[in-house]
Specification:
Elements lengths: L6 E5 L1 H18 L6 E7 L3 H8 L6 E9 L12 E4 L9 E9 L3 H13 L4 E9 L12 E5 L5 E2 L15 E4 L1
Parallel strand pairs: 2-3, 2-5, 5-6, 6-7
Antiparallel strand pairs: 1-9, 3-4, 8-9
Helix pairs in contact: 1-2
The protein binds guanosine-5'-monophosphate.
């Protein structure tokens, strides 16, 4: 178990809040604010980002949650997506925005977007991520909204974990 004293701050609480607010403005200006937006939170990592983002959205929103896992307890992608809960309603004729903590290889979101497109009859499916780790990408998938770029660091906090811990931090940190 790594010690919290060894954690370096990468992004503080205020910077996170300001940037998420800016991202919400971008999302508000992309969609018709009179139409329903179905927001899918990818548990567990996206939970803090999701609850912060949703407060600033102007359109009527519906909240959905899925639970997927590709890392297990390591700091490297396992290369396969484990679906722990993937029950979603029919989104016929409606917009869907998938909200994820971080896009790394792209495996998880590639899997989820394909699943939604094949099964949920959505009008449109877009992606919002708190972090884009572009250097690790292996799948041809690009987020539509992305708050921060991150290089090849393993980050924790604000929903992101290491062996299940550190999700409750109100900042983003990394271990050197
Ligand atoms: P991908 O499927 O794009 O390779 O990986 C996405 C998932 O890997 C994320 O939802 C997240 O759970 C995990 N992940 C990727 N990079 C990091 C990181 O730097 N820190 C943490 N805590 N999780 C990460």
């Amino acid at each position: 178990m790594k010690k919290i004293e060894e954690l370096k701050v990468l992004i503080d609480k205020k910077t996170l809040a300001n940037r998420i607010k800016e991202l919400a403005v971008e999302i508000n200006s992309t969609y018709d604010n009179n139409s329903t937006l179905n927001l899918i939170c990818v548990l567990k990592g996206a939970v803090m980002f999701y609850t912060e983002l949703i407060k600033h959205l102007k359109m009527p929103v519906k909240m959905e949650f899925v639970r997927l896992s590709s890392y297990g307890s390591s700091t490297q992608s396992k290369g396969e997506v484990k679906s722990l809960n993937l029950s979603l309603p029919d989104f016929e004729g409606q917009n869907v925005l998938v909200v994820e903590d971080i896009i790394d290889t792209g495996l998880t979101l590639d899997f989820l977007v394909k699943f939604i497109k094949q099964n949920c009859q959505a009008k449109d499916v877009k992606l919002a991520v708190l972090f884009d780790k572009k250097c690790a990408r292996k799948y041809d998938i690009k987020p539509d909204f992305s708050a921060f770029q991150v290089d090849d660091k393993f980050i924790v906090g604000f929903g992101l974990d290491y062996e299940g811990f550190y999700r409750n931090l109100d900042y983003i940190g990394y271990f050197e």
